[in-house]
Amino acid sequence: MRQQYVFTTLTLLILFSLSCSTTLAQSPALAPAPSGPTNVTKILEKAGQFTLFIRLLKSTQVANQLLGQLNNSNNGMTVFAPTDNAFSSLKSGTLNSLTDEQKVQLVQFHIVPTYLTSSQFQTISNPLRTQAGDSGDGKFPLNVTTSGNSVNITTGLTNTSVSGTIYTDGQLAVYQIDQVLQPLQIFAPRPPAPAPAPAKSKNKKATTVADSPDVTPADNSKAATLQNVGLFGVAALVIALSL
Ligand SMILES: *[C@@H]1O[C@H](CO)[C@@H](O)[C@H](O)[C@H]1NC(C)=O
Ligand SMILES: *[C@@H]1O[C@H](CO)[C@@H](O)[C@H](O)[C@H]1NC(C)=O
Ligand SMILES: *[C@@H]1O[C@H](CO)[C@@H](O)[C@H](O)[C@H]1NC(C)=O
Ligand SMILES: *[C@@H]1O[C@H](CO)[C@@H](O)[C@H](O)[C@H]1NC(C)=O
Ligand SMILES: *[C@@H]1O[C@H](CO)[C@@H](O)[C@H](O)[C@H]1NC(C)=O
Q1: pLDDT averaged over every residue in the chain
Q2: Can you give 10-39 as a three-state secondary structure string?
Q3: What distance in angstroms lies between residue 114's CA and the mean position of ligand 3's atoms?
Q4: Which of 45, 125, 132, 155 is the Cys-Cys partner for 108 at CB 3.0 to 4.6 Å?
Q5: Is 159 close to ligand 5, i.e. is its CB under 6 Å away?
Q6: Which residues pair with 162 in a beta bridge?
Q7: pLDDT tens profile 56-83
Q8: Closest C-alpha residue for ligand 5 atom 14
Q9: For the structural domain made of 40-185, what CATH number should be given?
Q10: Quick check: 78 and 112 in contact, CB under 8 A?
Q11: The FAS1 domain covers which part of the protein (predicted)?
């Protein structure tokens, strides 16, 4: 019995390691036409100089969304990937000043839910709709114009052009850009003068509400007092009983 068990285990182990090694041996050959969705993170890692964009893709979970979307989409996807230099030329503190939601929107603004070849850029109608949504005025419009071979992109705040093709496979296109695309919705200068005054009083109200957790410690101390009374009562009872 025992020997048979050992034998079976060994056989399974051998079979398993064989299948592992064949999988490993096969994977380079499979690389050009991978089964399953294309991994954008991997493509960017291989290309180098996109560490900050990769970090954002991961921290916002947009990388996972992309995997799912590529797997389910017939239209494909286009990603405009800003280089690390693009991120370092942002005003310092720019990323840190964004809320989590804005970070997601910023990353999604760099993704178009259609596969676009460079020749399609010439006939595309503006504004493009990105994953960030609403391409209306002041929201998330992205305009692409071409002159000769150069493809220019404007958001209303950022002017840049496509500076390289990192990857295309008929389903996914990844282009390099040298500036972070800043959407108006997030980065437009705030309207000046009259607007801020009411906004501030709203903020004050908001902080008052936010301050209300003060109530909780008070409740806690009440609870603590009740507990003390309770303990005292029990102690008194014990003393009374023992007498
Ligand atoms: C995609 O590639 C990255 C980097 O190579 C890796 O960390 C990640 O696990 C991959 N994701 C999937 C779903 O394979
Ligand atoms: C891709 O999609 C198919 C069916 O649409 C699904 O069965 C499969 O689990 C998906 N794979 C991934 C990695 O999302
Ligand atoms: C594209 O941008 C370049 C500078 O980056 C500029 O010289 C050129 O005029 C722009 N072309 C179009 C069609 O906007
Ligand atoms: C984008 O193109 C549309 C249509 O041509 C235009 O109305 C809009 O003003 C443009 N926006 C920017 C930011 O260039
Ligand atoms: C972008 O280009 C437009 C027209 O080509 C110009 O009016 C605008 O000032 C430029 N914006 C920046 C930030 O360079």
Answers
A1: 77
A2: HHHHHHHHHHHHHHHHHHHHHCCCCCCCCC
A3: 24
A4: 132
A5: yes
A6: 177
A7: 999 999 999 999 999 888 899 999 999 9
A8: 159
A9: 2.30.180.10
A10: yes
A11: 37-181
Query: CB–CB of 44/52 below 8 Å?
Result: no
Q: Where in the chain are the domains?
A: 40-185
Question: How many Å apart are CA 75 and CA 150, to the nearest integer?
Answer: 24
d(CA 193, CA 20): 67
Quote the tokens at residue 148: 């000769």
Distance CA 243, CA 225 (A): 27
Ligand 5: which of 143, 146, 153, 154 to mutate, most ligand atoms within 8 Å of CB? 154
Number of the ligand closest to the Cα of 50: 1
Residue nearest to atom 5 of ligand 5 (CA): 159
CA of 207 to the centre of ligand 2 (A): 45
- Grouping H, G, I as helix, E, B as strand and the rest as coil, residue 148 is coil
Cα-to-centroid distance, 225 and ligand 3 (Å): 72
| Coil vs helix vs strand at 200 | helix
Handedness of CA 112, 32, 34, 60 (dihedral sign): negative
For residue 185, give the ligand nearest its CA. Answer: 4
For residue 57, CA distances in Å to 66, 133, 136, 166, 235 come to: 9, 17, 24, 17, 60
